Recover the amino acids of this structure.
């Protein structure tokens, strides 16, 4: 049994959709502990197994059975994190109620804004796409995964980061594929920050460690996790369950399994270095469509799941991660708009602090400049929709006096009050509010054309604050050394 959905206003920018009661959150937590003690967690990394064994976990081969006491101890040492921008300014205070949106700067495929066709993503696309993300005010952080077809597999993430940091001041969300990749990324960002110590003091990076499947770690993912703890680099770790695919075919079952997965990773991370910075609680959640085997990002069941994921994160006293602002549709169309709007609204209603993949298309396979421009408009629209109007004695007295002054059948267009206040209303940059003449043959440029024109304008005119010439030269030398290493290997 679950509690009913309760929607209550709280402040000027937040609404609350609460799915789980505290008793239900406690029950999910307890069930997750049972999973870790009864089923265990696959830990192939020897260093992680040694840490767990020394702390009292039972080891059988690469399977580790984690007692609940270790989980509770780990949760006591997790500290809140503030992420900065490249300029050293606080950018992402990861605290409950502050919703932040991130977007991919690279995917396997990209929609070319000039040819207006889909093609494989290349290294050269990183700069213009990151520039576009830097220009959009509603995109708070830039995700660098590294998926360029013309970059060696061993250098994917670090090359993506080296390209991106030159074209944005926003925090970077990076996914190193292994410990070497993480070290390269830290070398790169340390050059920009003025050293690794300076980077740790004001981190503008979040490193991501993703296991292969629920309850199944990999050597590379665990080594990245351990290295982040050792170096004091903010970590985001999560699994990717698909309901009915690699997790039980129920929201409750997927929650228990994936929450256990998150807890296991928290234990390993905090055993390595108690108090090491951990950004969020939570995990992604998809539904496996049994007709197509697509992992659906936008199924209605995922919305309910993400509300529960968010409630669990807040129950742990952590910001929430998981919800995505994208579309399952293979192109930007009416379905894409409906799914993106629904996810954006749900992000604010549920209070998920870190929303990612904003504007991506085709269930995460395609990045499109038009897509991120669209979600920027949707985010601004949604913020305006949920902003509470000022309704106090001063505003009500002003209204009564104004109405008395103008009287019945009056008009307000020419009154100074309207001139003073009309700019406080939200006005779209791209959505069309022009007067409609149903009989006119030409109705003007459609939304896709407007999105494309806006994307190209920002790509061509936006200039992020540049790095010093000596820093750029040092980054180029570092990237060249990576390529020499790969060639010599």
């Amino acid at each position: 049994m679950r509690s009913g959905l309760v929607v209550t206003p709280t402040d000027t920018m937040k609404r609350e959709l609460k799915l789980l009661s505290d008793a239900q959150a406690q029950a999910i937590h307890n069930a997750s502990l049972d999973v870790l003690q009864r089923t265990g967690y696959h830990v192939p990394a020897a260093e992680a197994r040694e840490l767990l064994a020394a702390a009292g976990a039972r080891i059988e081969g690469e399977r580790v059975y984690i007692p609940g006491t270790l989980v509770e101890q780990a949760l006591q040492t997790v500290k809140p994190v503030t992420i900065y921008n490249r300029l050293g300014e606080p950018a992402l205070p990861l605290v409950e109620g502050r919703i932040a949106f991130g977007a991919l700067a690279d995917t396997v495929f990209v929609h070319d804004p000039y040819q207006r066709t889909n093609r494989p993503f290349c290294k050269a696309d990183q700069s213009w796409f990151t520039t576009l993300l830097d220009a959009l005010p509603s995109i708070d952080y830039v995700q660098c995964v590294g998926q360029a077809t013309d970059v060696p597999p061993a250098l994917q993430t670090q090359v993506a980061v080296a390209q991106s940091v030159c074209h944005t001041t926003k925090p970077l969300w990076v996914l190193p594929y292994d410990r070497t990749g993480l070290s390269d990324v830290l070398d790169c960002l340390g050059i920009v920050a003025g050293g690794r110590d300076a980077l740790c003091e004001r981190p503008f990076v979040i490193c991501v460690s993703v296991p292969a499947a629920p309850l199944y770690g990999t050597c590379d993912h665990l080594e990245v996790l351990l290295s982040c703890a050792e170096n004091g680099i903010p970590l985001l770790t999560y699994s990717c369950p698909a309901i009915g695919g690699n997790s039980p075919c129920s929201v409750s079952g997927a929650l228990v399994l994936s929450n256990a997965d998150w807890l296991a990773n928290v234990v390993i991370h905090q055993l390595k270095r108690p108090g090491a910075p951990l950004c969020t609680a939570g995990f992604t959640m998809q539904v496996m469509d049994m007709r197509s085997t697509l992992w659906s990002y936008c199924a209605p069941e995922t919305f309910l799941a993400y509300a529960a994921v968010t409630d669990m994160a807040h129950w742990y006293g952590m910001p929430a991660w998981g919800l995505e602002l994208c579309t399952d549709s293979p192109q930007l169309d009416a379905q894409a708009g409906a799914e993106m709007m629904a996810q954006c609204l749900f992000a604010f209603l549920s209070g998920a602090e870190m929303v990612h993949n904003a504007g991506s298309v085709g269930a995460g396979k395609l990045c499109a400049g038009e897509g991120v421009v669209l979600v920027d408009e949707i985010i601004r629209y949604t913020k305006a929709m949920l902003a509470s109007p000022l309704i106090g004695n001063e505003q009500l007295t002003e209204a009564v006096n104004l109405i008395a002054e103008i009287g019945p059948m009056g008009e307000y267009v020419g009154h100074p009050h309207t001139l003073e206040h009309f700019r406080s209303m939200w006005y779209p940059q791209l959505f069309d509010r022009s007067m409609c003449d149903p009989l006119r043959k030409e109705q003007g440029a459609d939304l896709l054309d407007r999105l494309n024109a806006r994307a190209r304008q920002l790509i061509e005119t936006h200039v992020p604050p540049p790095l010093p010439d000596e820093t750029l030269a040092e980054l180029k030398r570092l990237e060249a050394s990576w390529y020499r290493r790969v060639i010599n290997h």
User: Anything to note?
Assistant: The chain has 16 helices and 21 strands. The two ends are 57 Å apart (CA to CA). The chain has two domains: 74-386, 393-424.
